[in-house]
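Lab notebook page, bench 4
Experiment: in silico fold of construct C2
Operator: M.H.
Input chain length: 540 residues
Purpose: comparison with the prior construct
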Amino acid sequence: MAQRSVAGQADYIVVGAGSAGCVLAARLAATGAKVLLLEAGGSDRTTLVRKPGLIAAVHSVPQLKKRLDWGYYSVPQDDALGRRVPQTRGKVLGGSASVNGMLFVRGNAANYDSWAAEGCAGWSYADVLPSFKKLESWEEGDTEFRGGSGPIKVRRQTDVTTATLGFMEAFADTAGVKVLDDYNAESQEGIAIVQQSADAGLRYSSSVGYLDDHGMANLDVATGVTVARVVLEKGRAVGVEIITDSGARQVIRAEREVVLSAGVFGSAQLLQLSGIGPAEHLRSLGIEVAEDLPVGDNLHDHLFVPMCFLMPEARNKGTAPYFARGFLKELTRGGTWVGRTVFEAVGFVRSPAADAVPDLQLHVLPWSYPGPNQDAPVRHKADPRRTLTVMPTLIYPKSRGTLRLASADPTAAPLIDPAYLRDPADAELLLDGMELVREAMAHRGLGGRVAGESSPGSSYADRAALAAELPNRATTVYHPVGTCRMGVDERAVVDPALRVRGVAGLRVADASIMPSIVGGNTNAAALMIGEHAAALMIEG
């Protein structure tokens, strides 16, 4: 990937043009400051990214995925049959928001209140709600809970299949929850049509919303740039060192601050490469320790288990010719067949072990989903029959893992260990979710409309059989967080103003700062972190 020339200095250097980084860079530049935004990937101005539904092809065709993804895998997972689970991360403007399913979920209000209760002043739900509202343009306009004029357009899914609508009613009755109008408003508990960060056939990543045609000469966006480390002088971050096309090193200086927004893996990796992290680990790799901090700890992620049910009303066939015909029809006749997410509904419900908030999420899509997993880097074949896939999802994992350096080489992939299923409670909650889905699919309202369960299937009829198979089927929702934990104790990497402890002029602003994961898809929260970080820096 060609790298153009990079300016020698700026007021602010933001590393990583992902969900939070694009937001932060644009907001800082709007103050008149000179901002340099560095991205390792390339431009997102490609149909593969901008046309929302094509992400299904990107994820299923390795040759396409390689163009936009870092290609990371976990280390072998001891509690998941030694599997090396893919850790998809966008290597492109917009970051993972350019390769995700576009589900717009803020999480539960209680999540942010728990951050504040742990000492993160300024991060309660009441504190962050203005940042959520500022970033979005909700289809119903400005309300008490929603924003109507922000850069990210948020719309409900349209043309929902009768299979999904039937499941929603059955599940609501079985689980004793409501069919919701808006799960991002007053209450999250229930099941609803999914909201997506897409509109009129266009994906609204942070790059689209905040960088397209920004018109600010003081905002410089450089792609194809590999950052090797943060440059420290006398306990202060003064810039970054990049690797040029020739392999040489170049230092770019920041007059005010450096902000890492390189994501849950990239920000933690860069801190460690800069001598900020677990001292013993860094010394073992010959890296001089600048600050001994628990960088890379607290890694955790959402897990789901795809369950597939044969339903003619699901309408879609999981075959390449069917998908190609739909895409061609849109190109020739118009419409938005691939102009939206593949998901149709999302639900939040309490398991038997839940306390005050839902601890299970459901993802519903009218397509078959390859199984038992998609670990191997090959094109996986899906069942060609019309299928409704329901994914019970663990949203508050108790398991905690780590990110560590494989070497001091900044181009080497880090060692990613999410510790999937390490805590037995995580498996039990997923099993509760699978049983609840089966109960809903057996509901009288779906009588005669379900032709059978194709995956996991009748071979796993009871809880014991499901438990034995679960380590082979549970997989990531691609929502890792927490490696640069925000807080006020010794477990923290950054303080509530997102400043790296013990280092002046250096902050982290992305999903890595979450003390604990939010209850739902993480992209909306990552966007909010970008907005909230900008407010902290500009106002503070």
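Observations: The mean pLDDT is 95. DSSP finds 14 helices and 24 strands in the chain.
Next step: discuss at group meeting.
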